Amino acid sequence: MPGPSSIAPRPALPAGEDETPTGRQRDSALARLGDIDPGRRADAAEQLAAYANRAAETALVQALAGDPAAEVRAAAARSLGHVRKPNPATLDALFAALQDPDITVGMAAVGSLGGFLAHDETGSKRDRALRAGFQAGAAAPGVPAAIREILRDALAERGGR
Prior knowledge:
- Helix content is 63%, strand content 0%.
- It is built from 8 helices and no strands.
- It has helices at residues 21-32, 38-47, 54-66, 70-80, 88-97, 103-119, 125-139, 145-157.
- It is globular.
C-alpha cells in the first residue's frame, strides 16, 4: 500500500475553476444553457438559481435577453431573483424583460424585481434605482397593463408614488 509520501499532489486548478460537486453541477447547468432543447435550457436556468456567482448571473442575463424560448427567458428571470447582490446589468435586463412579448417572462421579471425591492433598505442606492425603474415601467406603454398595475402596487406598498 502506498504511503502518503508516494501519492502525487493534485495539480492546482486554474483560477476560477471549481472541482467540487457543487462547482461541477453549476458548470453542467451552465453548459446545458446551450442545449438545443428549450426544456433542458429552462431546467438549467432554474438550477442556476442555486449558484449565486457572477458566471451564473451573467449566463442567466444572456438567456433572459436572447433565448428564443419564452420558457427559458422566464426561468432565467426567476433565477435572477435569487442573486443576492445583482449587478446593474442584471437589473437592466429584468426591467427590459417587463416588455417581453410573452407575459410570463414579464411576470417572472416583475417577481424578481419585487423581491429585490422588498428586501432592500429603504433609501439605499439600489432601492432608489429600483423605485425609478418601477416608476418608468409603470408608465411605459410597452409594458402590459397587468404588469404596470403590479409595479404601481409595489411602489404604493413601499411608500413610492
